[in-house]
Amino acid sequence: MSKKGKLLLAAAVFFFALLVVWAVRTVPEPPPIIKDDTPKVMTYDQNTISEEKAGKKIWELTAESTTVNVDNEDILMNVLTGHFYAEDGRIVTITADKGAYSHGSRDIWVTGNVKVTTSDGAELTADEFHWSAKEEKLTAKGNAKATKEDMKLTADEIESTDGFNIVKAKGKAHIEKGKAQNEN
Asked: What is the helix, strand, coil percentage profile of the chain, to 5?
């Protein structure tokens, strides 16, 4: 090979080496991975959720607006109406401003202007209601008041596992007989 060819080959190798060094040194750092911890949610209008057991509906809740956390499937509800179906055929109807459903425990909480009525004429009001799926128990908490026929019961907490046929009152409980149901 001639002297000129060797010189060109050396120049080409030199420029190639420079190109490799430049390419290696100028590789950009990968962008940092940003972990997005904000919950992913879906929002629905006029949505109904329900639970069935052995082919029978246990309860259903319908809300004006519903927000579902996609990651854990927990649900927040606004302006809701619900129905709980008792074994004896009675229906417990509940209305409230807000509610929450835990997918993991299947529990329900409702708050704000909560009112419960049963198809046999009982009424119950409280600051908050909690449905425990595991215990199949509905608990009225805070300023709880139950009325049925000529009986009025007030307590800090009222709970029932049978659609309010039998209730358990806790904390500052007071019962009056002979009071009209629509009396305050």
From this structure: 10, 55, 35
